[in-house]
Amino acid sequence: MTQVDPAQLAVVRQNYKDAHQDHVFTFWNDLSPQQQHTFFSQLESIDPKALNSIFQKATHSSQSTTIFNDLQPLTHSEVKSTTHSLLTEQQDWEQRGLDAIANNHVAVIVLAGGQGTRLGSSLPKGSFPNIGLPSHKTLFQIHAERIKRLQTLARTHLATKTGRSLDDVLMPIITWCIMTSGATHERTETFLKQHAYFGLLPENIIVFQQGVIPSFDFEGKFLLSAKDKIATSPNGNGGIFWALHTEGVLEILQKRGILYTHSYSVDNILIKIGDPVGIGHALATNADVTAKVMLKTRADEPLGVICHINGQVRVVEYSEMDTELAALTDPDTGEFVYRAGNVCNQIFSVDFLQRMPAILQTPDQNLLIYHPATKRVPFVDLMTGQEIEPDAPNGIKLELFIFDAFTLAERFACLEAERASEFSPMKNPDGLDSPATCRRDLERLHIRWIKQAGGHVVAIPGSLSAAGSESLLGFEISPTLSYDGEGLEWARGKTIQACHLETKDDAHFL
Q: Which of 420, 504, 488 is nearest to 450 (CA)?
């Protein structure tokens, strides 16, 4: 193992000393040459002065008691809706979106850095095996199959539009980008390989890793997780903007001719991946950022709200929102005044994504500020060298939030979607936003699709009815059979016994 060059070491040491972070060298002389080499690589990759500035901005911002006197909700004219817009307008958006997908202009990006820790699993949330669906599918499989179905729909759309036979139209490609963290990266890659990428071509799947940022103690000093390592944590879902650049993903998307990306959180079981209506809306409005939102259902619902602060589009986190403002209702509609719930579902133009690295590299930029979170951070005691597992919060982790980029959009758009069709997250082991509610919401949606097609779903004889009970029928439609309720005309006038429908041949009629 090559030893660290003394001259280079001296320069790096001085950088840390100037930033008052040279305590990280406390155990340097105790390390083996190999440990020193590995540690030096990490030390060299960190700019301690810049991180001091980031820490100061983040903690100062969180401690600020500034009252935003100009807090205003989005107006009704600023929020288009998939439920209240004219049918012709929605059809136009969908056609535009399918055109873009058919021409390989759309990629999707899943934010998949989280583990299922709160669900009792250390696995990546996308591969969490215990959702309990009749099909036993994971979130990653559901997402992959929705992509496959949407590609097929776009191909059929293009063939119909151009008057060509289906055989004369190539299958479109929706590039699937998966942003992982250090905790989920290798396991995600292994999981996808083990399942043959669920039928997608591996060359059209890009797994890339979000960045990390050092963890601090309450005085702003770097914590050591080992004698030869600064403690780090993922830099939040807002790290997508830098990771797309540093991991070479943006360059790949450019070469592929991608114009728009749909980014979403991995834990939403109802997500309409690559949503052609949303993509078409972005195209129709020429928006470089489109946020898909859900109407808040209660004042204390844990969703941030998109609104205007001092004339800029911002998201106010639910924990920061004044309770009286959160409860305000519009007397004409009965809806909450601050109603546009942010659900981490957004469409970015590639042009916008290309502008972000330059903004992030701008010295003293105040556009994307890290958010501090007080956490328990395992650390090395500098006096004893012992590794400590704290019982109480002892440090600060910093995160970027993806929604902070909304204010940087030259053309921001907001599209309200129906919650029952598009939003059911899996965050808790039970109760709200749990595997149980995901199962319930997916089954309700699929039963509604059959009803809209003119059919009816009933329980297996002897089983409990879902009506008035927490029990479910056990009904599920594969994404490969239907993306959004289309292609189910064969159910018209039929009564279907609840089951898992991978194809229409799996239906049992009564």
A: 488
| Token pair recorded at residue 338 | 């601050």
CA-to-CA separations, 385 to 28, 30, 31, 321, 388, in angstroms, rounded:
12, 10, 12, 43, 9
Say if strands 312-316 and 340-349 run parallel, antiparallel, or are unpaired: unpaired
> Residue 57, SS3?
helix
pLDDT tens figures, 435-484: 999 999 999 999 999 999 999 999 987 665 443 345 789 999 999 999 99
Closest CA to 344 of 423, 397, 288: 423
- The secondary structure of residue 336, as a DSSP letter, is B
Retrieve residue 447's tokens: 């039963």
| pTM given for the model | 0.92
CB 309 within 8 A of CB 322: no
The 3-state secondary structure of 193-257, one letter per residue: HHCHHHHCCHHHEEEEECCEEECEECCCCECEEECCEECEEECCHHHHHHHHHHCCHHHHHHHCC
DSSP string, 417-469: --HHHH--B--SSSSTTSHHHHHHHHHHHHHHHHHHTT-EEEPPTTSPPSTTS
DSSP 90: H
Q: What angle do CA 178, 184, 188 make, to 5 degrees?
A: 55
Q: H or E stretch including 307?
A: strand 304-309
